[in-house]
Specification:
Largest sheet: 6 strands, antiparallel
Helix content: 55-70%
Structural class: alpha+beta
Number of domains: 3
Oligomer: single chain
Number of helices: 12
Strand content: 5-15%
Order of helices and strands: HHHHHHEEEHEEEHHEHEEHEEEHE
Number of strands: 13
Length: 556
């Protein structure tokens, strides 16, 4: 009997060591996964700050150019606002990369280049104040382009470095998942085997059989719960990792929202949810996507003060909505309905709200992974918003709102190739406001800018959805009409010419004199088979229109 007791004690000790080892392994793997998730969030924040820094610098440059071209004080105010934000963003990037010496060196170089660029912008403004536009143009030497290129290159290097770190952390996450999987596949069966041996030894002790059986049942129950919880956590972490990777590949906010709704539906099938997007004015949030059937309905539009989560900038969890609820949540006629209001925050700004409801408050026990999903969604929506702003700034001309010359060259080649492939026509107009230089001399650059902006609006109103209206340069504009034959293009040109004759432009409380426009029209394939040839012959037709008395339409 003494031998059985010794074996029992030894078996129990061995089983305890195994479970301690399993627990330590799980804790180690979980800590690594948490650390990797934080590192991923850190890298995403660095890249987001870099994108915002580039956007702010471009805003400052655009506002400076707008002020120089128009002389309007609101452009100057925009310039100062953007310029004051740039050093703050640079300081934030320095603080974020302080633990990475290579990034610290790049950040220092980036700071130096940005300070140089800000000095160049300031110098250009000073030259403009003293010598006007000729002075400003003289200040824009080759150093400006070299500094801007260096800034873009350093920003790209820092983003590439962070992406490389993301790949390393992804590999680390896979390693942690493998550790947890190995513990589940090897440690738990071994623990069960040892426990079974201990149980058999205890059975042989008749006088302690009842206690031994109870202890065995308890241990087995704990093992089953631990195994189920481990598998649950592992599945959640794998799903979160896949979600994060797919979220990085989303092209727009709608795609990110659809992916998030599917992710949360998979995590908690019975829980209904709504994601709200904050309006740009920050005065209210609107429902963007729903899934499931809410047990406690929420308003389609809500004010930030109507939600405790948005009010406090932290998750608001309620296990019984009949006892406590936000004002945007409707009352329910039975107890036990649980809700969660999780604010979507990115870089200190509210961008939305995740609202969940269920008859069972079990989903609140998994709120950690739901909050992780909300955090990744917030960063993705913020990055997508910044990316869209940068894209629009690169293809739009700020004064008229039309596409710029760079976009014209890209789209003309694309549309011409498409029409040629499908054997369809394409027409192109060159438009020039008559006597614009004299108008500008009389009414000033501000009056000229008002006229150009009004003409840009008129041209957009007379364009189809598939047409491409661009400002070619100065007072010259271009309109590409895909799939339009030359006779249709001539009719459209005549309609635009007539509309310009009746156009009214208000500036500084008074109506500016009326103007006219001359238009040259060319068509593919009759007048050219390349964008360059079409632009050339359309410009020649425009010159004939000018030569023949202006305020007329000429065809190539």
């Amino acid at each position: 009997m003494q031998t059985v007791k010794e074996r029992t004690r030894f078996g129990l000790l061995f089983a305890a060591l195994i479970f301690i080892g399993i627990g330590a392994g799980i804790l180690y793997g979980a800590q690594r996964l948490i650390g990797d998730a934080r590192s991923v969030a850190h890298s995403n924040e660095v890249m987001g700050r870099l994108d915002e820094l580039e956007a702010r610098l471009r805003d400052a440059e655009s506002a400076q150019r707008g002020y120089i071209l128009s002389g309007r004080a609101d452009y100057l105010a925009d310039y100062h606002n953007s310029r004051e934000r740039v050093p703050v963003l640079v300081d934030g990037i320095d603080a974020l990369v302080v633990d990475n010496q290579a990034q610290v060196r790049r950040a220092r170089q980036l700071r130096a280049k940005i300070e140089t660029r800000l000095h160049q912008i300031t110098n250009t403004l000073l030259r403009y104040e003293s010598d006007g536009i000729p002075g400003a143009r003289a200040a824009m030497d080759s150093d400006v382009f070299e500094t801007s290129s260096a800034i873009r290159r350093l920003k790209a290097q820092m983003v590439d470095a962070e992406r490389a770190l993301l790949e390393q952390r992804a590999a680390s996450t896979r390693g942690s998942a493998n550790v947890l999987r190995a513990i589940a596949l090897l440690g738990i069966p071994l623990g069960l085997a040892v426990t079974l041996g201990v149980y058999l030894l205890l059975v042989r002790e008749i006088r302690r059989r009842s206690d031994a059986e109870a202890a065995a049942r308890e241990v087995q129950g704990q093992l089953r719960e631990g195994n189920a919880e481990l598998q649950h956590k592992s599945a959640d972490l794998r799903a979160l990792s896949r979600y994060g990777g797919m979220l990085q590949g989303c092209l727009d906010a709608d795609e990110a929202l659809q992916l998030t709704s599917r992710m949360l539906s998979t995590l908690r099938p019975g829980t209904a949810g709504t994601i709200y997007r904050m309006r740009n004015s920050q005065d209210h949030a609107e429902a963007a996507i729903h899934w499931g059937r809410h047990r406690a309905a929420s308003a389609e539009s809500l004010l930030p003060d109507a939600c405790w989560g948005l009010r406090r900038n932290q998750p608001h969890l309620v296990s019984d909505v009949s006892a406590s609820r936000c004002s945007h949540v409707s009352a329910v006629d039975h107890d036990g309905v649980a809700i969660a209001c999780i604010p979507l925050m990115a870089q200190g700004a509210q961008i939305g709200l995740l609202y969940l409801s269920d008859d069972d408050d079990g989903f609140l026990s998994r709120i950690d992974i739901i909050e992780a999903v909300a955090e990744q969604l917030s960063m993705a929506l913020s990055n997508l918003s910044l990316r869209e702003r940068l894209r629009l700034q690169s293809i739009r001309e700020p004064l008229t709102g039309l596409f710029n010359r760079r976009y014209l060259e890209e789209s003309a080649t694309r549309e011409l190739a498409r029409c040629a492939r499908r054997e369809l026509p394409l027409s192109l107009m060159m438009l020039d406001i008559d006597h614009f230089k004299a108008f500008n001399d009389v009414h000033g650059h501000a009056g000229g800018d008002a006229l150009l902006a009004a003409f840009g609006t008129l041209l957009a109103e007379h364009s189809r959805g598939e047409d491409i209206a661009c400002r070619y340069g100065g007072e010259e504009f271009t309109l590409i009409l895909p799939e339009a034959p030359v006779d249709a293009a001539l009719q459209r040109a005549e309609a635009i010419r007539a509309a310009v004759e009746t156009m009214r432009v208000q500036h500084m409380g008074r109506e500016l004199p009326r103007v006219t426009v001359s238009i040259g029209v060319a068509a593919f394939p009759a007048h050219g088979d390349s964008p360059e040839s079409l632009l050339r012959v359309a410009d020649e037709a425009l010159y004939r229109a000018k030569h023949n008395g202006r305020n007329r339409v000429e065809c190539a």
